[in-house]
């Protein structure tokens, strides 16, 4: 193994030609090949084992009630997810991205977060959102098309969903830099998938967070599929191995084991919060449903593989454990099922009641400060709608001078010119 | 809307227009790099009321503006490639790291998407980042972060998230550079809702507009005319639009500087109107000077300053007097700022126009090798030819 103080060499500084392979290596002369500023705390690079981390100790504090709580989280999140899929099938949502199969990775990591931590999701982190107290109906609104965001990131410590794959990793890296500048006691965590690991932004975030020692946990849910492309199409190496090249530690965890996910995320967050820089966690799991409701996985997914992962269902595993330990009896299970049904019913009612926004809202919050063009277009739009309400067909009239195409048909003569009603400069 | 003309009533106030005229004939030679003026008051800018302050370069004016912005707000941080120890490849950030430390003037990895993407995260955390993209042609790796994230998060969050990020981009050609160092990418950003796009053209504006951009709660693409970095002028402590309107650093209800998004008449005229921004304002002023001397024509010159939103008030007011308009920029013509100006002026001042709105732009080709870039860039001859065509119509 080549250490950073050794250089492959065939000509020595003195000009001697090296012809023997075992000698073709020299200690770095004056300048080390890797220039790491002396003031930077060197991150601990490596892939620690469960023994290194003492994984069981990381969750030794959990009570049976905690475990039942995680089970409840996963049951409710799955029921939410199932209901959302049904709502899409019935035309109430335009699209749904199911998290089925990833409940343990999301609840385990989500429950490791503290109030001072900030999570940056992709678009499938419904289980993390649940743990951060985001109203599931707000998520449904995004997929129904009534909003683009839906919650206050600061209130929940949960950023908005990010649909451009991997883009959020850079936001998280910058936010984490800010946290360390502010001497925050928290850390940031960013969720992404095996597909995103190929994106340039994710790799830039790896490098950036490493260089600046940002308190950031990269949480990769490797659910094996990027729509139709298997994870092996994304990387020649295991994803978690990449961290060593960027100079920070990483672990791979069974993503269908809620306790292990909780434990490693606790460790990763603690590492980040302690000022040791970023950590990469790869949670190996499986997307048991389609990419979204618009996808047809039968075209690319072998049924045997899905069946194999069904037997590794994250909910079954914890239920079996809790039942065997006597923490989950039939009565408790029944109460939980009723609670899940009530949640689903409530979300269905609230989803269908989500009002379409006022059309003029499309002009809201384009910018903080006034933009005359948008203001003029809004005025023309509102006026045209009011005109339509009066029975006048103005929407097809001449273009307003704002370029909106929704000005009044008849202009007025001002200063020797005929001007559309939207001519506000 | 700014309606006054500096050359008619403002020249005595700040001397800008006078200098522009005086320098016109030597403009082409003045583009060679000159040594920076180092004066005793360069840290704080010229003090008002003192003897005639020394002119400073556009790059220095930006430098002083950045310094003032950083001194005024501890949340302002400068980040980019080579902005720290080196002071930027154009020295625009020279001395800032020494003054404010490595924590506030950050030499970043060479990753443009990350520069903008992490600036977004820092802004979410309450910081006010000023990103430098080293050259125009290097902004494209950051395109997604600018267009899909920076421009849209305020809208996506229904107003909850504000991203006061300034992205400085040296733009335009004329410096004999290799490929990707001479481009004019403004149309991409003007086309994107949620961004504000401005271009300074002279040291005075550079000094004030950079501070106004940093104070803006909206993301601002701040374009710097790189071939004008070494041109000198006196920087008045007051922003240009405020000189015209008589107000002092006017702000709107949201506290944003109104002046940043105003266009300004920089040379009064009566026969035809030239509109430029960034590097071509100088070229337009030179053309107006030649036209006055050779053709006895009085050309009005307007500096757009703000490309999105556009402030066409002064342009319309001018066109209603002159009836003729020529729009000049280095960017290609197809779907460009001049196309937007032409369309809107035609809509709003159709009956005032004596001729179609004409355009003098870079060609719709990739930016050429430097030895022939003078043929690509709008020059005095092409501008005056367009003026001739306008009069001949």
Question: Residue share in helices of chain B?
Answer: 25-40%
**Unreliable parts of chain B:** 1-49, 246-257
Major sheet of chain B: order of its strands?
A: 3-2-4-5-7-6-12
Largest interface: A-B, 53 and 58 residues
Described by strand count, sense and barrel closure, the largest sheet of chain B is:
7 strands, mixed
Separation, N- and C-terminal Cα atoms of chain A: 68 Å
SS-derived structural category of chain B: alpha/beta
Bin the helical content of chain A.
40-55%
List segments of chain A where confidence is low: pLDDT < 50 over at least 5 consecutive residues. Answer: 31-39, 393-401, 406-425
Number of helices of chain B: 16
**CATH level 4 superfamily of the largest domain in chain A:** Thiamin diphosphate (ThDP)-binding fold, Pyr/PP domains
Largest sheet of chain A: 5 strands, parallel
The overall number of domains of chain A is 3
What fraction strand of chain B? 15-25%
Number of domains of chain B: 2
CATH superfamily of the largest domain in chain B: Thiamin diphosphate (ThDP)-binding fold, Pyr/PP domains
Broad shape of chain B: globular
Architecture of the largest domain in chain B, according to CATH? 3-Layer(aba) Sandwich
- CATH fold description of the largest domain in chain B: Rossmann fold
Mean pLDDT of chain A: 88
Secondary-structure element order of chain B, N to C: HHHEHEHEHEHHEHEHEEHEEHEEHEHEHH
Structure description:
The complex is a heterodimer of chains A (425) and B (393). In chain A, 41% of the residues lie in helices and 10% in strands. Chain A has 425 residues and is of the alpha/beta class. Chain A folds into 3 domains: 1-35, no CATH class; 50-353, Rossmann fold (3-Layer(aba) Sandwich), CATH 3.40.50.970; 359-419, no CATH class. Chain A has a 5-stranded parallel beta sheet, with helices on both faces. In chain A, strands 1-2 form a two-stranded antiparallel ribbon. In chain A, strand 4 (188-193), helix 9 (200-212) and strand 5 (216-222) form a beta-alpha-beta unit. In chain A, helix 3 (64-89) crosses helix 4 (103-110) and helix 8 runs parallel beside helix 9. Chain A is globular. The termini of chain A are far apart. With 393 residues, chain B is of the alpha/beta class. Chain B has 2 domains: 35-259, Thiamin diphosphate (ThDP)-binding fold, Pyr/PP domains (Rossmann fold, 3-Layer(aba) Sandwich); 264-392, Rossmann fold. Chain B has helices at 6-14, 16-24, 27-30, 58-72, 96-100, 112-124, 143-150, 153-156, 186-190, 203-215, 240-245, 279-295, 313-322, 337-348, 373-376, 380-392, and strands spanning 56-57, 76-80, 105-107, 128-132, 166-171, 196-199, 220-225, 232-233, 264-267, 272-276, 299-303, 306-308, 325-332, 358-362. In chain B, helix 5 links the parallel strand 2 (76-80) and strand 3. In chain B, helix 4 (58-72) packs parallel to helix 10 and helix 12 packs across helix 16 (380-392). Chain B is globular and about 60 Å long. The interface between A and B is large, with 53 and 58 residues.
């Amino acid at each position: 193994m080549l250490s950073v103080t050794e250089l492959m060499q065939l000509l020595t500084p003195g000009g001697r030609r090296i012809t023997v392979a075992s000698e073709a290596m020299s200690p770095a002369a004056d300048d080390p090949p890797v220039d790491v500023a002396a003031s930077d705390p060197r991150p601990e690079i490596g892939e620690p084992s469960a023994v290194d981390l003492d994984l069981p100790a990381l969750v030794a504090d959990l009570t049976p009630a905690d475990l039942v709580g995680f089970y409840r989280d996963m049951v409710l999140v799955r029921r939410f997810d199932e209901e959302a899929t049904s709502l899409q099938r019935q035309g109430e949502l335009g699209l749904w991205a199911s998290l089925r199969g990833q409940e343990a990775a999301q609840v385990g990591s989500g429950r490791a977060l503290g109030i001072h931590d900030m999570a940056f999701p992709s678009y499938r982190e419904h289980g993390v959102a649940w743990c951060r107290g985001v109203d599931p109906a707000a998520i449904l609104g995004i997929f129904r098309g009534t909003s683009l965001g839906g919650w206050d990131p600061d209130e929940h410590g949960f950023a908005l969903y990010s649909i451009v794959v991997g883009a959020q990793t850079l936001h998280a890296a910058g936010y984490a830099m800010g946290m360390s500048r502010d001497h925050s006691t928290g850390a940031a965590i960013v969720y992404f998938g095996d597909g995103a690991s190929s994106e340039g932004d994710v790799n830039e975030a790896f490098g950036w967070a490493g260089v600046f020692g940002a308190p950031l946990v990269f949480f990769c849910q490797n659910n094996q599929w990027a729509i139709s492309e298997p994870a092996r199409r994304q990387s020649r190496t295991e994803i978690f191995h990449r961290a060593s090249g960027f100079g920070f530690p990483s672990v791979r965890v069974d993503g269908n084991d809620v306790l292990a996910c909780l434990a490693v995320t606790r460790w990763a967050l603690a590492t980040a919060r302690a000022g040791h820089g970023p950590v990469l966690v790869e949670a190996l799991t499986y997307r048991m449903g389609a990419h979204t409701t618009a996808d047809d996985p039968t075209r690319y997914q072998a049924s045997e593989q899905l069946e194999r992962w069904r037997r590794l269902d994250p909910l079954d595993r914890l239920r079996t454990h809790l039942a065997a330990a006597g923490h989950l009896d039939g009565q408790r299970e029944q109460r939980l099922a009723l609670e899940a049904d009530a949640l689903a019913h409530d979300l269905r009612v609230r989803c269908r009641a989500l009002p379409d926004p006022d059309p003029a809202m499309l002009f809201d919050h384009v910018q903080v400060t006034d933009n005359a063009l948008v203001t003029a277009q809004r005025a023309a739009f509102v006026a045209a709608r009011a005109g339509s309400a009066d029975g006048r067909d103005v929407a097809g009239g001449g273009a307003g001078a704002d370029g909106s195409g929704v000005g009044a048909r008849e202009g007025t003569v001002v200063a020797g010119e005929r001007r559309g009603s939207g001519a506000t400069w | 809307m700014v309606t006054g003309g500096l050359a008619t009533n403002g020249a005595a106030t700040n001397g800008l227009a006078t200098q522009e005229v005086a320098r016109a004939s030597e403009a082409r030679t003045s583009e060679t790099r000159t040594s920076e003026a180092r004066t005793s008051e360069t840290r704080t800018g010229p003090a008002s009321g003192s003897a005639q302050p020394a002119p400073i370069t556009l790059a220095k004016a930006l430098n002083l503006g950045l310094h003032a912005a950083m001194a005024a707000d501890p949340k302002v941080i400068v980040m980019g490639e080579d902005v720290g120890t080196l002071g930027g490849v154009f020295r625009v950030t020279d001395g800032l790291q020494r003054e404010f430390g490595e924590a506030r003037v950050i030499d970043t990895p060479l990753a443009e998407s990350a520069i903008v993407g992490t600036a977004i995260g820092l802004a979410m955390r309450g910081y006010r980042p000023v990103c430098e993209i080293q050259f125009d042609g290097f902004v494209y790796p950051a395109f997604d972060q600018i267009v899909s994230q920076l421009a849209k998060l305020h809208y996506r969050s229904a107003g909850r998230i504000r991203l006061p990020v300034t992205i400085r981009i040296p733009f335009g050609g004329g410096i004999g550079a290799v490929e990707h160092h001479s481009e004019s990418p403004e149309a991409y950003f003007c086309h994107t809702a949620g961004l504000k796009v401005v271009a300074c053209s002279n040291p005075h504006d550079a000094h004030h507009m950079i501070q106004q951009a940093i104070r803006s709660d909206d993301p601002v693409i701040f374009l710097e005319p790189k071939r004008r970095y070494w041109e000198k002028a006196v920087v008045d402590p007051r922003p240009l639009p405020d000189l015209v309107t008589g107000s002092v650093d006017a702000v709107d209800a949201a506290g944003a500087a109104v002046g940043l998004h105003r266009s300004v008449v920089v040379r009064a005229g009566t026969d035809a109107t030239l509109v430029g921004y960034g590097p071509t304002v100088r070229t337009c002023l030179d053309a107006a000077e030649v036209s006055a001397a050779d053709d006895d024509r009085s050309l009005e010159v307007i500096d757009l300053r703000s490309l999105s939103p556009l402030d066409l008030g002064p342009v319309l007011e001018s066109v209603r007097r002159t009836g003729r308009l020529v729009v000049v920029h280095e960017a290609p013509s197809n779907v460009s700022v001049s196309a937007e100006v032409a369309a809107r002026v035609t809509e709003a001042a159709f009956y005032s126009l004596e001729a179609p709105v004409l355009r003098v732009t870079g060609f719709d080709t990739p930016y050429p090798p430097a030895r022939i870039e003078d043929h690509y860039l709008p020059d005095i001859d092409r501008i005056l030819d367009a003026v001739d065509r306008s009069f001949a119509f």
